[in-house]
């Protein structure tokens, strides 16, 4: 029987965590300009790619004035400043590839970067929260939120493929919005013992997970594997667990000792962390430690949401206790769809990293040192790892297998009922799907 949440059990809400009803974890309406005082930053950040190709980015940054961060007032100003300083930093470090890196980030970049990072609770390196969540604008402000009407605020080498990589990842985040909005319904339903509400919310979540997988499939249409592997990846790489920069990077004016930070990783998205905590998926040993560390690369409010979901009564335990066929089927469908999403991510990684890496090794064995094939430009230090520093394929397969561990047994009839019942329940989700489908090649 359902119960009522008491005053001591306030309903769980997304309000304290800066999660948008429309955009989820995506930063709504990012700024495109900073106050005029910070124009020297934007002048460089908006031309990083050209300056890298002309081998002059480092010299331009060294001439840049040391600016005070106290005139940055709003959260959106801080996010744009962090994005701009991040792409400058990645370009400065990797301008000449893995064989001519730097040991020191100059004071005029390092000091303001550190201060902005401290105010946001983000590390001083390019993160998913920068490159994806806060790096977009609509070409037509009144047009749809789809890949043809989106563009980046700042970019890195890689042309259309780097735009495609960040924009497709953004659309995966957008497809997840109905699921994120359903999490409080699940938590409050468990608190009240309302199996019907929990079942309905879990069906919405599983639908959204399928939408995320559909969005991820766009990667093949908008990103060229050889360009991603041979050009883009190095600019997403960090200075932790990277043999190209074994000592890390000195942030001049902050401390004399070098610091280590991981590069960009899908594990920096809060989405799957939320789903894992909700469903009770446990990651242990090296995988668990890496995923936990990646939470330090998220906006602090999103990290707190994940932590607070983990403190709620067990959804899986509630499902077992209720022993309802429909509820169990809805839970299991979520597990199945999350496994499918993770399996498809493995497919994408194979296409964009494993296969090009094998080709790059083949070219080296043949003694082909020419730059004619794009993959041959790739850094050798990252062949077996993700840009975040993980041993990528073994990591992804282990994470998927731990997802399977929370599966609950059910008969085929219940699963069929849940699958048939999981139809779109609101126009917002349908709209997101329509935008994805109209742009699928």
UniProtKB/TrEMBL annotation:
**What GO terms are given for molecular function?**
heme binding; indoleamine 2,3-dioxygenase activity; L-tryptophan 2,3-dioxygenase activity; metal ion binding
Keywords annotated in UniProt: Dioxygenase, Heme, Immunity, Iron, Metal-binding, Oxidoreductase, Tryptophan catabolism
Per UniProt, what is one Pfam family of this protein? IDO
Report residues binding heme b: 345
Q: Which GO terms describe its cellular component?
A: cytoplasm
* Region Disordered, annotated ranges: 364-388, 416-441
InterPro entries recorded: Indolamine_dOase, Trp/Indoleamine_2_3_dOase-like
* Annotated Low complexity bias: 423-441
UniProt cross-references to SUPFAM superfamilies, sorted A to Z: Indolic compounds 2,3-dioxygenase-like
Q: Which PANTHER family match?
A: INDOLEAMINE 2,3-DIOXYGENASE, INDOLEAMINE 2,3-DIOXYGENASE 2
What family is this?
Belongs to the indoleamine 2,3-dioxygenase family.
Name by which UniProt lists this protein: Indoleamine 2,3-dioxygenase 1
* Phylogenetic lineage: Eukaryota, Metazoa, Chordata, Craniata, Vertebrata
């Amino acid at each position: 029987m359902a119960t009522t949440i008491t005053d001591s059990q306030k309903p769980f809400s997304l309000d304290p965590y800066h999660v948008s009803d429309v955009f989820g974890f995506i930063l709504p309406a990012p700024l495109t300009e900073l106050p005029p005082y910070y124009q020297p930053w934007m002048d460089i950040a908006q031309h990083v790619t050209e300056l890298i190709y002309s081998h002059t980015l480092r010299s331009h940054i060294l001439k840049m004035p040391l600016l005070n961060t106290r005139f940055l007032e709003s959260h959106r100003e801080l996010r744009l400043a962090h994005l701009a300083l991040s792409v400058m930093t990645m370009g400065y470090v990797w301008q000449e590839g893995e064989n001519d890196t730097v040991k020191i980030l100059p004071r005029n970049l390092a000091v303001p970067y550190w201060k902005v990072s401290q105010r946001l609770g983000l590390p001083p390196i390019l993160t998913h929260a920068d490159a994806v969540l806060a790096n977009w604008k609509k070409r037509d402000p009144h047009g749809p939120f789809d890949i043809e009407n989106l563009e980046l605020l700042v970019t890195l080498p890689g042309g259309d493929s780097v735009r495609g990589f960040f924009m497709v990842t953004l659309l995966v985040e957008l497809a997840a919005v109905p699921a994120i909005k359903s999490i409080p319904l699940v938590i409050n339903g468990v608190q009240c013992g309302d199996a019907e509400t929990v079942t309905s919310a879990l069906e919405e979540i599983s639908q959204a997970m399928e939408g995320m997988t559909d969005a991820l499939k766009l990667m093949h249409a908008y990103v060229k594997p050889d360009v991603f592997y041979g050009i883009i990846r190095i600019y997403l790489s960090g200075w932790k667990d990277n043999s190209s920069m074994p000592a890390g990077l000195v942030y001049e004016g902050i401390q004399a000792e070098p610091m280590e930070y991981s590069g960009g990783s899908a594990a920096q998205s809060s989405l799957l962390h939320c789903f894992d905590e909700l469903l009770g998926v446990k990651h242990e040993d090296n995988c668990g430690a890496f995923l936990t560390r990646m939470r330090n690369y998220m906006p602090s409010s999103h990290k707190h949401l994940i932590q607070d979901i983990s403190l709620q009564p067990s959804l899986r335990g509630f499902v077992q206790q209720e022993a309802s066929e429909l509820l169990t089927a809805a839970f299991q469908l979520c597990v199945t769809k999350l496994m499918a999403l993770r399996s498809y991510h493995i497919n994408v990684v194979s296409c964009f990293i494993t296969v090009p890496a094998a080709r790059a090794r083949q070219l080296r064995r043949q003694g082909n040192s020419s730059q004619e094939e794009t993959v041959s430009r790739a850094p050798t230090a990252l062949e077996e790892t993700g840009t975040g520093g993980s041993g990528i394929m073994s990591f992804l397969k282990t994470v998927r297998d731990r997802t399977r561990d929370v599966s609950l047994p059910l008969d085929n009839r219940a699963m069929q009922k849940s699958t048939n019942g999981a139809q779109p329940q609101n126009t917002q989700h349908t709209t997101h799907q329509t935008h994805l489908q109209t742009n699928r090649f």
